[in-house]
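Subject: ABC transporter transmembrane domain-containing protein

B.,
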Amino acid sequence: MEEKMQLSEREQRKILFRLLSYTKPHKKMISIAFVLLLLTTIGDIFLPYLVKIFIDDYLTPGKLEFQPLLILGSIYMGIQIVKAVLMFFQFVKFQEIALYIIQQLRIDVFSKVQSLGLKYFDKTPAGSIVSRVTNDTEAIKDMFVTVIATFIQSGFLLTGIFIAMFILNVKLALFCVIIIPILLFVMNLYRKLSSRFYLDMRERLSQLNAKLAESLSGMSIIQVFRQEKRLRQEFGDINEQHYKAGMKNIKIDGLLLRPAIDLIYIFALIIVLSYFGITSFQHSVEIGVIYAFINYLDRFFEPVNQMMMRLSLYQQAIVAGSRVFRLLDEEELAPVQKDEETIAIQQGRIEFKNLSFSYDGKRDVLKNISFTATPGETVALVGHTGSGKSSIINLMMRFYEYERGEILIDGESIRHFTKPELREKMGLVLQDPFLFYGTVKDNIRLHNERLTDEEVKEAARFVQAHTFIDRLEDSFDHKVVERGATFSSGQRQLIAFARTIAANPKILVLDEATANIDTETEEAIQTALAKMRKGRTTIAIAHRLSTIQDADLILVLHQGEIVERGTHQELLAFGGLYHKMFLLQNGAVERLEDVVNG
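Prediction pasted inline below.
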């Protein structure tokens, strides 16, 4: 998705205040960190004054008495040591606060991602979402660790320096006050220019992550079809755009950060030295005062430089915050259930009533779908690709919201059941099952602590999965790598079947569940499915018509409409679309057998 290329000042303030709202639970820790910060700042301000006392009261007059100098030196060293200790604890506190905040922010983002509807993931690359959860939140952490601490410390330090300057010389202190608007102008100019480039950089980084995630997930296809060169070119193009945006920002940094501030500092130093030089013709000037004032001037510009250098981190954090909050404010949520209801699915009778549905709000992919599936019955959905079979499943599983028509379970609208009730009573087996990193046992149980190890093994035996699991090293404790890559498609499918059976659902949803299983295994699975379907409502999507010949009702879909319905024999006798599909598949099988038999 394209990002806005510039944030207004109002939007930036809003994002900053929203980020700062995450500090509320940590008020006590923040107060301690600020007290430590204040104490170290007081030490910074007091040290030059001690040197001034040494120069004017002892060094210049030649009063080098041991005891007063020992006391003065001890105070100086004591402040330095205490300051170093306080700085350590201050640094740790600010880091701890930042990590707590980012931890909570990442939990919020991750939780939000879990609640989003599938429509959001249909239009947003996975890498872009990953970038927001990782890179963007890390940029925000830098703001809490360095930017806020630096700005607060600089504020304390500048205030103290101004007080000390006014004590030393009112005229020169007023001159330094005049410099402040110039500094603010430079800071504001940098903030406006850099925000546009940082937005561009963040968007390009998001695109890089998206392209990388896509390449990794489709590596086998890339290599088989020799797409490496094209992918390298696309990745290189995005990388080049990221580089150009970065270079634009570096040029702004090089012009408006330290060089501009250093130029103003040199100008101020010339004025100060000229003032003391001219004044010395009229009356004597204390060397300690000159040292202290120049030292304060240097310390005045150092926090300004620090703030300017941190402005880049601040801008990155604000831009990253805008991207994170855009995700947190996303309204493409999963369909809402009336969670206050306590209705339970008792039988699992499903009824579709005149259901129509569109993904984009323009073209209907389902049109007036009506059918009933009762417990113990199997309703099969068949049709060419794009006919609407998977859409029916998606709506029934509440992955998408519908507006026209109704879906009923046991006579109640599907919207009236809580999400946990729906998920617990519906068992879904996909054509390409997903296995999580862990063990075989973990993937069947899915962290349902109510299932005992024996029940997990019984579920595997039920679907004939125990045969290959027992041959694995460590059997049910065998390690599963990411996505179950070391298992065959059929083995992954058997584990998915065992996972579904272990949950003991009232409604069984099969999305071409036997497509990746060999003929021998399919026979065992069909036997298991026959047992699974007893007493359960089964909705099955099938491409291979041989797998659903015993279905109680077959619905033939074409362009989102049910064009034929009946049993296998009834549809063959009708001689319509189903009959053509059956002849096409069986004809292909016969031709294949002829080739094999020579």
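The longest helix spans residues 66-115.

T.
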